Amino acid sequence: MADKEPQQPEELPIVLVHRLPSYKIPLDPSFRDQLRSQFHMLDPHESPEPYDSFLARHAPFIRVLMTIGHSPISAEFLERLPVLELVVATSAGLNHIDLPACWSRGIVVTNVSLAFAEDVADCAVGLLIDVLRRISAADRFVRGRLWPVKENYPLGFKLGGKRVGIVGLGSIGSEVAKRLLAFGCTIAYTSRNKKQSVSFPFYANVRDLAANSDVLVLCCALTKETYHMINKDVMVALGKDGVIINVGRGSLINEKELVQCLVGGEMGGAGLDVYENEPNVPKELFGLDNVVLSPHCAVMTPESFEALDQLIVVNLKAFFSNKPLVSVVSNE
Amino acid sequence: MNNIGVLMTCPMSEYLENQLENRFNLFKLWNHSSPKPDFLKTHSNSIKAVVGNTKIGADANMIDSLPNLEIVASYSVGLDKIDLGKCKEKGIKVTNTPDVLTDDVADLGIGLALAVLRKMCVCDRFMRSGNWINGDFGLASKFSSKSVGIVGLGRIGTAIAKRAEAFNCSISYHSRSKKPNTNYKFYSNIVDLAADCQILFVACALTEETHHIVNRKVIDALGPKGILINIGRGAHVDEPELVSALLEGRLGGAGLDVYENEPNVPEQLFSLENIVLVPHVGSDTKETSKAMADLVISNLEAHFKCKPLLTPVL
C-alpha cells in the first residue's frame, strides 16, 4: 500500500495554539508530531509577525483553540475570534478561562478532567490515608533513627467508617468516592446541583456537609462562588478531629484560617496539594505531624500526560468530524 | 477474678493494661528488675494467662516455666511468637485478634503503595525543606490500573484485593492452595506471580514454610519497576537481599511496615527515596487498638467463666 502523501499544513484543519509566551507546547515529540500531522497548528508566538496582526489575519478561520497550561482566556480575547466554536483546555482546573463569556457565545469548552481524574483521585486518597495513619510522619520517625529510642509511635485513626464529604462530585470527585467506598467510608456530597443519577446523600451547602462529615475532600472548580468556601465556620462544623483534603485549588480554602485551626489543634489534620499562593506554603505547617504537603503534583505522572495528549487529539478529531466531544465542561 | 494471675509480656496498650489491672492480678514482665527466668519462677504458680503480642509472645521456655498456664491471649492476629505445638501438647488455649484489625492493615498496605508510587513522603520532605520555590518536583508513577499480586489471600489479602480493585488494578495471588469462590488469578509459584505483577503485597502468616518466601529470585522477578509492600512479618523477606536489590536498582521500590530485627531498620535504606518505612503500625489506630484489647479481655473473661472463647486458635 502506498504511503499517504503528507498533507500540506494549509489543507489541514486549523487549531490556534493559545499560550503565554513562556509556556511551551507539550514537549513530547510524538504528541507534537501527532498534532502537526493532523492539524494546522497556528502558534502566533512562533511567527515573526506581530501577535496582533497575526491573530487578526487568521481570526476569520479560527474555529478551535487549544490553551496551554493556565494561559488566560478573557472575554476581550474571545471577541477577537468571531467564529470560535471550541476551546480545548489542557488542564482540569479552568479558573483562568472566562467560562460565562464562552457559554454566552455558545462556545463549547472541554478540559482534561477525564485524563487526570484517576491520578488526582489517587492523590486525594493517598493524602487521606497518609494523614490518618501518619505515614509520612512515621517515615520521618524511622529515618530519624527514633524507633529504637522511642519504642512506640503515636496511634493513628481508622479510615473505615469515616463519613467523607466530597465537595464537587465531577469526574474527579466520583473517582474519589469509588475508591473510598472500598475502604468502608460512607460518602455524601455537595455540588452546585443535586445529581439525579447519584444515590449519595446531597447537602445544598458545604457547612451542612461538614457538620455531617469527618473528612472533606475538595474536588471542585475555583469560581467566584467557591472562593474561600472552606472557612472557619466550615472547619468548626467539621469538628476537632476533622480532616480536609484539597486537590482542587488553594483558594477554595481560607488558608490563613486553616493554618490557625491546624496550629491551634482545632482540627484533626489536612492533606494539601494546592495552596493560595504557590509555590509559597505557610511555614507554620512544616512542624505539624498531622499535615501532609505535596507540591501541586496530583497529575504529575507520565500516564496522566499520555492520557492528556490522547484526550486532546480525540477531541480535536471529533470536532472536525462532527462527532461527540468528551470531557465537556457543563454549566451545571 | 482479681486473684487470677495474668502476665503481660511487654507494653502494648495502656488501655489494655488498665482493663487487665481492673479485672485480674496483673504482672508486667518488663517492670521487674530481676531477669525474666527468676521472675517467672517466683510468681509462676499464680499465673494462669499470658497476654503477648508480636514482640514477645509465649515461647517454649515461658510456657514451661508457668505450670498453671491455661490460656495465651495474643494482642495480635499473627501467631509466630507463640509455640503453638507446645500449647497444643499441654492443652493450653490460644486466642488472637483476627478481623478487628483486617481493615487497618489493608488500609496501611494500600497507603504504603500509594506513598511509594506517588512519592508522597519525598514530596512532603521536599515541601518542608522549602525547596518548592526553587523548582518543580518532577514526575511520580501512577497507582491506578497497576497489576497487583498478593501473597496470601486470607482476610487481610482479600481486603487488600477489594481496595485495589476500586483503583482498577488487576489482582493475582499466590497461596498454599487455590481459593474457591474467587475470580482472581492463582499462581502456584510465587516467582511467576512476582514476574507478572507490578506491586507485590505480602499478607500471609509467618510459618516455617513462608520464612523468607520473598527471596532474591522473587525480588529479581519483581524487577526494577516493581514495588514490594510488606505488611506481614519482617522474616517473610530476606532483608539483606532486599537491601542490596534496592541499593543496586534491581527492585523499583518498597513500602515496609515490618523488619527482621525490629526496632532496627537497615540504615542503608535511609538515604533511598523509593522506599517508605513505618514502624510496625499496621493495626495502630485508636479504634482498632481498643477493639483488639476488648477482644483480648473478652476472651480471657470467657475462658475464666467457662464460656466459649470468641476467637480461639487452639
From TrEMBL, chain A:
The keyword Cell inner membrane does not apply. Coiled coil: none annotated. GO terms for molecular function: glyoxylate reductase (NADPH) activity; hydroxypyruvate reductase [NAD(P)H] activity; NAD binding. GO terms for biological process: oxidative photosynthetic carbon pathway. The keyword Transmembrane does not apply. It holds the Pfam family 2-Hacid_dh_C. Residues 53-329 form the D-isomer specific 2-hydroxyacid dehydrogenase catalytic domain. It comes from the Eukaryota. GO terms for cellular component: cytosol. Residues 125-298 form the D-isomer specific 2-hydroxyacid dehydrogenase NAD-binding domain. Keywords: Glycolate pathway, NAD, NADP, Oxidoreductase, Photorespiration. InterPro entries: D-isomer_2-hydroxyacid_DH, D-isomer_2_OHA_DH_cat_dom, D-isomer_DH_NAD-bd, NAD(P)-bd_dom_sf. Belongs to the D-isomer specific 2-hydroxyacid dehydrogenase family. GyaR subfamily. This is Glyoxylate/hydroxypyruvate reductase HPR3-like. It comes from Gossypium gossypioides (Mexican cotton).
TrEMBL record, chain B:
It comes from the Eukaryota. The keyword Transmembrane does not apply. One of its GO terms (cellular component) is cytosol. GO terms for biological process: oxidative photosynthetic carbon pathway. Residues 12-313 form the D-isomer specific 2-hydroxyacid dehydrogenase catalytic domain. The keyword Acetylation does not apply. Residues 110-282 form the D-isomer specific 2-hydroxyacid dehydrogenase NAD-binding domain. PROSITE patterns: D_2_HYDROXYACID_DH_1. Keywords: Glycolate pathway, NAD, NADP, Oxidoreductase, Photorespiration. PANTHER family: 2-HYDROXYACID DEHYDROGENASE-RELATED, GLYOXYLATE_HYDROXYPYRUVATE REDUCTASE A HPR2-LIKE. Belongs to the D-isomer specific 2-hydroxyacid dehydrogenase family. GyaR subfamily. This is Hydroxyphenylpyruvate reductase. It comes from Gossypium gossypioides. The lineage of its organism: Eukaryota, Viridiplantae, Streptophyta, Embryophyta, Tracheophyta.
